[in-house]
Amino acid sequence: MINSIPPALIYLLGALLIPFWKGKMKQGYLLLLCLLSLGNLSRLEIGTHWTFPFLNYHLILLQVDRLSLAMGIIFIVVGLMAILYALHVKEDGQHMAALIYMGSSLGVVFSGDYFSLFFFWEIMAIASTFLIWYRREKTSLEAGFRYLFMHISGGCILLTGIVLQVVSTKSILLQSPLESPASWLILIGFGLNAAFLLLHTWLPDAYPEGTVTGSVFLSIFTTKTGVYALARCFSGTEWIAYMGGAMALFGVIYALLQNDIRRLISYHIISQVGYMLAGIGVGTALSMNGGIAHLINNLLYKTLLFMGMGSVIQMTKKRGLTELGGLAAKMPLTCATCVIASLSISGAPGFNGFISKGMLLSSMAEAHQPWLEGMLRLASVGTFLSFTKLSFFTFFSKNDRIEAKEAPLNMSLPMATLAFLCILTGLFPGVLFSMLPFPSAPYHAYTPSHILGVFQLFLWAGLVFMVKRNGFTPHTWIILDVDYGYRQVLRWMAWVFTGPLNDLRSAIQEGCLRMVNRLILYSRNPIGLFRNFRKEMPMEYDENRYRGPMGLGVLLVILFLFVYSLIYLISS
Amino acid sequence: MRKTLQKLFFIVAVFSIPLGFFVEHEPGSFWWNRIPSFDAFVGGIGAFLLLGAKTLVSLIASKKEELHD
Questions:
Q1: What are phi and psi of A59, to 5 degrees?
Q2: Do the Cβ atoms of B66 and A478 come within 8 Å?
């Protein structure tokens, strides 16, 4: 008897039936799918396997262990909140894209082999692109194409790595690849989804251009599946830890420079993923637990932030910090939930970020990684500063001209629920610890030195914010990221290909044509080669001109044969 | 009101420093974590450092034209 099915199937098959429902029935159907998925999840036991024979391989569509189960639980719970938030959306296409995206992300998480993972990985990339395109603006269309281009390129690199890996090991099982070119290609493929530095540009480019609800889904799945894949296959790789530290710092510095509220939190995704990668890269039980705990917590507060900022955009039709302000009185619930999310992401005591950041910093000390500890601590200061800036200039700064009212119930309810979960997991971290991959790595978050340290850090960074507030004031300039450099290189390459290289091709083509024409003419008159070699080009064909040389040639051949035959006869 | 809040914030920040001398630090952390109130120093200096980094990046990478021109 089948106890449970792969959670991906519920969403992927469920998405196909969406067009058959209308109005309230459709909303009920969407919620029913989520409840069905939760019910199915509760029946998943560690060790469950679902295999499917394909060619000479056994694809593992469902493999449940502590890591995949933790990811599955948080994806389904936060996904339910996102579906509730998007319940008012009328377009079937958006709901279908979101469900397929969610289903394929769950497919990645529960895959037990590289082929299944790659299959779901690519569905994820395509489905998520529609969540950007559905905004139906020129900027979204362009950002969507860039997003798709990056992810398909990453997919090709990943597939190359997987094929090389399978050929060399004769195994498709999802496990740490041996040090080889294949492992580097797989790492780049996973790293693109996790927004490794220099491969990160798709994230702050595309996420702010998605629909209000689409960006919420985008913020949940893509980077987290990348982190999951790296945790599964590359834990304990030291340079990933340093990549994480660099991402944590880069993300906060760029976030401080942003004016667009969703671009600001998009840069914070890079920063927060950096924390997770630092833990995964260090690879001890505590750091792995810290990385995964931070992933779970991040899904709660980052989704809440995207929901809050989405509500602000939906209700005010404005997205720049320079245009916003004064919303605390007009959107009190959104304001309160966003402040809770800001405190959580900053790691304030009583909120969930305090637990996972503490775990990560302690694990850096445990593993003797002073540079990483310094980078993450400095990034914490930046996180606090940029969320002080975001909350202040969105909700508390003075703006009498702004018109807004609170978001509708279906948007407010998931925000309130996520805010509650941020506090619950912050005050009772046992809920969080019970989900982590290494249950035997103990951690005590609420020590006096940890609590006081965080308060001191906030107070003194807050003082600097108050004193140097002009330095943090938003502006409307565009801040270039490394993709500007990529575009310049591509433009230069396009110029080289269409200009000098094209001229060279034309010159070679003309030279070759001239040579072929000469060969044609000389083959008709070989003697002309000697006559005209240093003179002009051979003349037009004239049959009388070739009679003499042809006759001479035939005579010479006959003479040669005669002499040869004579010698042969005499010798025999 | 705003001035009063700012003054209160400043007083709390200053008074948090001596508290650091009464708190015991966990074993296994780095030596600088055992310096009393080191986190206050990290918060203040870190904020200035990040402000400097932000200013530097904005000098190099800010542009008034359309990004995807």
A1: -75, 135
A2: yes
